[in-house]
C-alpha cells in the first residue's frame, strides 16, 4: 500500500502554494519593547560570556602573541578556559547523565573550571602559589573570568603551571 502511494506521489505535479507574502511582511519591524524582551530572554546563552569577556574582536587569535614554544597542552588548556569547554564533571554531565557533576573532593560543589582554579579545597596550597605568582597589575577580585579577561600571557602561563602542578588537564 505504501509503495503504491509513493509511486503515485512521484508522478503527480507539486502542489501550488496559494499564499503570497507582500515584501512589507518580510521586513516587519520589531517593537523596541519586544526587542528588549527577546534580548533579556537570550542574554544568558553561553556565547555571551565570551563576548562579554572579549568584546572587541581582534584581527589575530590570542595565541599569535605567544613568542616562545609552548606544549600543546598550554594552548588546549587556555582555549578551553576562555571558551568554558573544559573536561570537568559538570561539563561532561551535560552529555553523559551518568557522570555526576559533583567534585570528587568536594561532593557538595559542582566541578567546574572556576571551582578547580579558585575554590577546591584540595588545591589550596597550589592555589596560593598561583595567586602569588600572578603579576601585581592584574585586576582584582581574582576569579576565573577576570584572570582570563586580562589576556596577559604571564597570567595564562601561571594558570597553566597551576594546572600542571595539580596534574590536571582541561
Automatic annotation (TrEMBL):
Superkingdom of origin: Eukaryota
Protein's UniProt name: Reverse transcriptase zinc-binding domain-containing protein
Organism: Apolygus lucorum (Small green plant bug)
Amino acid at each position: 500500500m505504501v509503495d503504491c502511494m509513493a509511486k503515485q506521489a512521484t508522478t503527480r505535479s507539486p502542489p501550488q502554494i496559494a499564499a503570497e507574502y507582500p515584501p512589507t511582511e518580510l521586513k516587519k519591524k520589531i517593537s523596541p519593547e519586544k526587542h528588549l524582551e527577546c534580548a533579556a530572554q537570550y542574554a544568558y546563552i553561553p556565547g555571551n560570556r565570551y563576548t562579554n569577556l572579549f568584546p572587541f574582536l581582534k584581527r589575530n587569535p590570542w595565541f599569535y602573541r605567544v613568542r616562545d614554544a609552548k606544549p600543546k597542552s598550554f594552548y588546549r588548556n587556555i582555549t578551553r578556559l576562555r571558551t568554558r569547554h573544559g573536561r570537568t564533571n559538570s561539563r561532561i554531565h551535560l552529555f553523559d547523565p551518568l557522570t555526576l557533576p559533583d567534585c570528587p573532593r568536594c561532593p557538595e560543589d559542582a566541578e567546574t573550571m572556576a571551582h578547580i582554579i579558585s575554590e577546591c579545597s584540595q588545591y589550596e596550597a597550589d592555589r596560593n602559589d598561583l595567586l602569588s605568582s600572578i603579576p601585581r597589575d592584574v585586576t582584582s577580585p581574582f576569579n576565573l573570568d577576570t584572570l582570563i579577561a586580562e589576556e596577559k600571557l604571564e597570567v595564562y602561563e601561571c594558570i597553566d603551571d597551576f594546572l600542571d602542578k595539580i596534574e590536571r588537564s582541561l
